[in-house]
Amino acid sequence: MHIAKEEATSIPGKSFSQKARTCLANITVEPLIVLYLFPSVLLAMSAANLHLEKACRVKLQLNETVCDALTARNASAYTSEQENLVQKVVTAMNAWKSIIQSVIPACLLLLFGAWSDKHNRRKPLMALPIIGEFITVTGFIFCTYFFYELSMEFTGLVETVPNAFTGSWFTMFMAVMSLIGCTSSLESRTVKIGAVNILMNTCIMLGLGLSGALYHVIGSYAIYCFALSMYTIGLIYLKIRIKEAKTEASGDEGLKSDRSGTFKDFFNVLHIKDTIMVAFRQRKRNDRKRLFVILTLTILVLGPMYGKCSCKL
């Protein structure tokens, strides 16, 4: 079943059951956002504590009493010098982690965006970040099980490299917004984009709020298994429920023909030029200047906030 343009849900004469069916039929990418983003945020506390314990027990080889107290935030059992030493080690790792997590996805987006528009395909770009998270969580399980055998730096690479080379959150949200733009009517597009943004903020809020409590109640292994389960369901949902948009010119034949040589074209460097030129092309009125102002404000507002968060333990 291919995605059709959404019908208005407020048509007079429709019964409640008909309206409910219409609403359910128009739900496409929203569950995928929850299945991907919520476990990703939920893992934050487990990952932070894993790095903390690796730094304390493996990297610095402090005694168990101090490391247990640092994990439990029991300030009476460790000195400020010991805490600063552990913080310094973890912060140094976060510095190069931030570079990997930011630079590589930013470069890949220049390729992914143009490739997606050229071949009219968004599902692979939604699947890639989920696969990256799946690999990361599997790596966390091994890093936790082989705690003293695998270093803190290796754990940092496990966390960053799979996500970075699969696009991370950036690629997922780009693909979701692109699919909404292609499959939604003008009347419903704003509502769907608003719903996705509400879901994103809700998942982040709930994930951050529950991550600490669940870590202390059920432990890291249970959180890892829960995340893997949600990612698996997300991939199944993506395969079964979400369909690629059909253009009026190409239809099914266009989608099939695009698959030949698709992977070869995936890393075509000419896509970078095409993507950059989107920002510089001439637009009506002062839209190009407005676009540059928005991009500048985004960097000035989100840049310091992202850097500050990445330096926190």
From TrEMBL:
Name of this protein: Solute carrier family 46 member 3
Leader sequence residues: none
Keywords assigned by UniProt, alphabetized: Membrane, Transmembrane, Transmembrane helix
GO molecular function, one term: transmembrane transporter activity
Lipid bilayer topology: Multi-pass membrane protein
Transmembrane segments: 23-45, 95-115, 127-148, 168-186, 198-215, 221-238, 291-307
Organism: Photinus pyralis
Subcellular compartments: Membrane
A single Gene Ontology CC term: membrane
Principal place of residence: membrane
InterPro entries: MFS, MFS_trans_sf
Database matches in Pfam families: MFS_1
Keyword match Transmembrane helix: yes
SUPFAM superfamilies: MFS general substrate transporter
